[in-house]
Amino acid sequence: MKKLLVLIALVLFASAGVAKADTLKLMTWKGYAPKVLVEKFQKETGISVEVTYSNNEEMIAKLRATRGAGFDLAQPSQDRISSVQAEYGLYQPIDYAKVDGKLFIPSMLEAVKKNTLVNGASYAVPFCWGTSGLIVNSEKAPGVDSYKALLDKKFTGRASYRLKRPTIIAMGFALGYDPFALYADTAKYQAMLDDIEKTLVAAKPVVKNYWANGDALLESMRSGEVFVAMAWDNGGWKLHGENAAIDFKAPKEGALGWIDTFAIPAKAKNVDAAYKWINFMLRPENAGYFTSEENVPTASADANPHIAEAVRANFERSFPPATIDNIKWYPPVPAELEALEGKMLDKVKAAK
Amino acid sequence: MSASGMKQSRLAFWLFLAPVLGWLLLLIVLPHLDMLYMSLRSGSFSHPGWTLTNYQAFFEEPIYWLTFARTAGYAVITTAITLVLGLPVAFYIAKVVRPGLSGALMVLLLLPFWVSELVRVYGWMILLRESGVINFFLLRLGIIDTPIEMLYNDATMIMGLVYTSMLFMVVPLVSVMESLDDSLVEAAYDLGASRLCIWRTIIIPHSKPGITSGCIVVFMLSLGNYLTPNLMGGKNSLWFTEQIYNQFIASFNWNQGSAFGFLLLALSSVIVWAGLKLTRQKLGEVAS
Amino acid sequence: MEAMTNDLSLRSLTKRFGDFVAVDDISLDVPTGSFFSILGPSGCGKTTLLRMVAGFEEPTSGTISIRGRDMANVLPNERPVNLVFQHLALFPMMTVAENIAFGLRRRGVRKDESRTRAEAMLERVGLPGYGDKRIAQLSGGQRQRVAIARCLVLEPSVLLLDEPLGALDLKLREQMKVELKKLQAKVGTTFIYITHDQSEALVMSDRVAVMNRGRFEQVGTPQELYGQPATPFVARFVGDNNAWAGTVESAADGEVVLRTDEGFVFRARGMEGCGAGSRVNLYLRPEAMRLDPKDTSNLNMFRVTLKAILFDGANSRLLTVTEQGHELLVRLPQNRTFDNLEPGREFAVGWNPSSGICFVEDGADCRGLDGEDA
Ligand SMILES: Nc1ncnc2c1ncn2[C@@H]1O[C@H](COP(=O)(O)OP(=O)(O)OP(=O)(O)O)[C@@H](O)[C@H]1O
Ligand SMILES: [Mg+2]
C-alpha cells in the first residue's frame, strides 16, 4: 500500500522534475536562500533554485513521507540527522570529495561529520550556526540573565517561549540538570522531564503565549507586550537595530548552540546541483552576504571581511569570549527521547 | 430502448464514473487504508508488529482523551453559537431583504474566504492584541486606562471559530429557509403566535434539515481546525488536531498519530450520530 | 349604534404602493353574521384589502374597525379576525389536530383541552377522527376544511377567506361552495370571502361587493347585481351579457329608443346620462331573449342564424349571429321544442324592453364579457 503511494508520488515528482530539467529543489529555513544569491547562482550555473520553507520537524516528516524523495537538498540541524538517518534512511552520504573543504571552518566541519556519522558514513556539512537564548527588553525587565526569568512572577503575562525541545533543554539547565548528559539514560531523562513539566505548569501564569511563529514573537516584543522571551539570537539583534533597549542575551546557564547543515535526501534527483549550491553558498563573499542579511553566523572560514560591521558588532556584544565557551552545543538526539518530550509538552499545554 | 443502446448507456455511465471513483480511491480511500495500517503497527523500532497499543494509549493516558473531550466540547459550543447567530442572519438574507440584496449579502459572507485562514486569523490578532486596534481606540476614548489582552483565551478562540464557520452554517440555512412559504409565517402570526413562537414552531422545524447539515459541517470543521485554536487559543487550549500534528511532526510517532486520526474520525462520527438520534433525524433527510 | 350591528367597518380605506393605488378610498359595513363576498378581476386589490383587515399591510389612509374597535396599531396576532390563505398555509410539520390547536395553544389553552376542542371542530367540518393525520395525507377538499377549522376554532369575529377554492378542481369547487355556505349558516360567523369567480360570489353570499381597480363599483345582494347592475363594469362582470354599441334616438321616463351600429332600432331601459344623441352600450342577458316568440307585441325583434350549440345541461346556450356578423348568446329554452337544432337554422328573436339596459359608453370594449385588468 505504502509502496503504491510512494510510487504515485514518485511519478508525480519525476514528471515535475523532467519538466524543468535544471532545477535544484531546496528545502530550507526561511532566510537561508536569499533572493540575490539565488539569482546569482542561476546566472553562474544556469540552475534555478526552487525553495520550500520548513523547519526541522517538518523536514523530517516530509522526507519520511517520501522516503527521501522530492527534494535535492535539505538543511536540518546537525543534531536531528543521525537518529532519523538510522531509523528511516532519509539521506545519502555526503561525498566529501565534491565539497570544497577549504571553505569551511575546520573544527565545525569535523564536528558535523562526527555528529552525523551513521554506519561509517557522514551525512552533512555545516552551513551556519547560531544560538537560542533570551531576548530581553532591558527597560521593562532590567538585569535578566537567566532562563529562570521565564518563570519569574515579576513578569507575569510578559514572558513567551515555544513549547519545543529547546525550551526543555534550557529549563533542564536552569533547574540544574545537564540534559545532554542524560541523553543516554532514558529513566533519568524522564525524571528530569517530569520536573520540568511541574515547573512549566506552575509557571503558566507567567507566560503570555507559547509562541509558534517567529515574526509574531518579534512583533510582541517590538510592541512591548512581551518583556522576556526565549528565541534565536538573530531575532534579538534584529530588534536591537530598531530599539536599543531590546537585545539578545546569552543566559548564564549557557546559550544553546545549533548548527544547521546541508544534507542530501536519499532520492535526490539533482545531486550535482546540490553540491554546486553547497560550494556556492560557502564561498566567502556569498556566506558574508548571507550573514549580513540574516544576522546568522556562517560556517564559512574566510567570510569575515564580507560581513557587515553592525552584524559583527551584534555578535561581539552578545558573545564575549567567556560566553562563547559556555555555549551548549546540541549533541545528536536519540529518537525515543523526542516522543517523551512531545508527550510532556502536550501535558504542559493542556494543563490548566 | 434496444439492448445495445442499454449496454452503451451503461458503458457511458461507467466511463463517467471511473474518474470519480478513481479520485475517491486515490485521495480518500488509499491514504485512509494506509493510516489504518500504520495505526495498527507498533511505534517502537525495536519490536515492530501488529498491535493495539496506539489505540490503548488514547484511553489510558488522560491527557489524550481529555484533550479530545475538551476539543469536542468546544466544537459543540462553537456549533451552538454559530447556529444561534446564523439563524437570524439566514432568515434576514432569505426572507427579509430584497432578492438582489440577498445575493450581495451572501457575497459579503463569502468575502472572508477570499483570503487564507492564516491571514484571517492574523487579521483578528491585529485587532485584538494588547497593542492592537481595538485597544488603541478604547484607550483613546478613555474607556479603559490599561490595555486589555483579548487574545489567547478560550472565548476569543471560540469567536474565531464561529467567524470561520459562519458561512457553512448560513448557506444551508438560507437555502432551506428560501423554501419556507411566507404565508406559513403569516398564518402563524394571524393565529396569534408571537415572534419567538413563530421561530419555535414554524421556522426552526421547517429549517431542521438545514440546521442539521449546517451543524454537522460546522462541528466537523471546528473539530478538525488547527490554525485558529493554535494561534488564537490560550495557553491551555490544546486542540486534538494539534496533538495529532505533534505525534506526526514533533514526536515522529506516525503510528500513534494515525491512531489518533482514526479515533478523531470515529469519535466525531459517533457524536454526530448521537446528535441525530437525540433530535430524531436521519442522515438521509439532511439537506445540502 | 352601528358598531353593534356591523362586524367590520371600513372608512375611506386607501393603500398605495409607490404611485400605484391598489385600494382606493373604500368604505364598507359588513353586518354581523353575514356572508359577504368581494368579487373582482385579478389584480384589482382584493388581497391587499383583506391583508389590511388582517393586519399584514398598513393602510395608507382610512380606518378599519372590527366590532366597533379601531384596529390601528393592533398587531395581526391580536386582531379578532382570522385569515384563510389563498394557498391555505397549513403547517406541514404538524398533524391536523396540531394545526387546529395551534391558535388555541397560543392563547394559553391547555394541551388536552385544546386537543378536545380541535377534535370537536374537526367533527363540525365533517372530518371526525382525522386529528392524527399529516397534512400531506389529506385531499384538497379536506385541507380546505382543515384550514377553515383552524380559524373557526378561535371563534373570530370575522373570518377572512382569500380565494380558498382557487386551488381546487371544478367538481370539488362546486361541492365546497355549497358546504361553505352551509358551514357559515351553521356557525354564524361573519365571512368575508374574496373571489374572482362570479358564480362563487353569487351562490354563497348574502351581499357582494364588485371591485375594480381598487374601488367598489357596486355593493348589493346577488339578485341586485345581476338584475340591476349599477355600472357597465358590473353588467359585464356579473353573469353573461350580450352587448351592442349604439346611439340614443330619443329618451323619456327612463326608457330610450336607440339605433345600434348595425342598424337595429330597440327600446330599452336607459341609465343616467342616456339622453338623445348620446353614445351608449346596450346589455342584454342571454335568458332575456325568446326564440320565435308567438306573441311579438311590445317586443324588440330581430333575426339571427344559429352558429353553434353550447351544451351545458340546464344552462345550455346557443351561439347565434346576426346578419351583420354580431355574435349573441341566447339561452336554450328547457322545453323540448328546440331539441333537434342544426347550425344554419334561422330564428326570430324577441325581447322585452325592460330586460335591456343602456349605459353611457365607458370606453371599455363592451364585447369583452369578462372584466379587464387594473
Ligand atoms: N407589496 C406590493 N408592492 C407593490 N405592488 C403591490 C404589492 N402588493 C400588491 N401590489 C399590486 O397591487 C395590485 C393588487 O394586488 P392584489 O394582490 O390585492 O390583487 P388581487 O385582487 O388579490 O388579485 P388576484 O385575484 O390575482 O389575487 C396588483 O396590481 C399588485 O401588483
Ligand atoms: Mg389575491
Distance between the termini of chain B: 34 Å
| Low-confidence runs of at least 5 consecutive residues of chain C | 367-374
Global mean pLDDT of chain C: 89
Question: Which small-molecule ligands are present, each listed once?
Answer: adenosine-5'-triphosphate, magnesium ion
- Provide the CATH architecture of chain B: Orthogonal Bundle
Structural class label of chain C: alpha+beta
The outline of chain C comes out as globular
Radius of gyration of chain B: 24 Å
Percentage of residues in DSSP E strands of chain B: under 5%
Please give the domain count of chain B: 1
Largest protein-protein interface: A-B, 39 and 38 residues
Helix content of chain B: over 70%
Main sheet specs of chain C = 6 strands, mixed
Number of distinct beta strands of chain C:
20
Order of helices and strands of chain B: HHHHHHHHHHHH
- Radius of gyration of chain C, rounded? 24 Å
The CATH homologous superfamily of chain B is termed MetI-like
Q: What percentage of residues of chain C falls in helices of 4 or more residues?
A: 10-25%
Question: Low-confidence stretches of chain B at least 5 residues in length (pLDDT < 50)?
Answer: none
Give your account of this protein's structure.
The complex is a heterotrimer of chains A (352), B (288) and C (374). Chain A is of the alpha/beta class and 352 residues long. Chain A has two domains: 2-123 and 258-325, Periplasmic binding protein-like II (D-Maltodextrin-Binding Protein, domain 2, 3-Layer(aba) Sandwich); 130-255 and 332-350, Periplasmic binding protein-like II (D-Maltodextrin-Binding Protein, domain 2, 3-Layer(aba) Sandwich), CATH 3.40.190. Chain A contains 15 helices and 14 strands. In chain A, helix 9 runs parallel beside helix 10 (233-242). In chain B, helix 3 crosses helix 9 (195-224). Chain B is mostly helical and 288 residues long. Chain B has helices spanning 3-39, 53-60, 62-96, 99-110, 117-128, 133-140, 154-178, 182-190, 195-224, 227-232, 240-250, 254-278. Chain B has a single domain (53-287), classed as MetI-like (MetI-like fold, Orthogonal Bundle), CATH 1.10.3720. Chain C is 24% helix and 34% strand. The radius of gyration of chain C is 24 Å and the shape is globular. In chain C, strands 6-7-8-3-9-10 form a six-stranded mixed beta sheet, with helices on both faces. Chain C has a five-stranded mixed beta barrel with strand order 11-12-13-20-14. Chain C has 374 residues and is of the alpha+beta class. Bound molecules: adenosine-5'-triphosphate and magnesium ion. The site of magnesium ion has 4 residues of chain C, from helix 2.
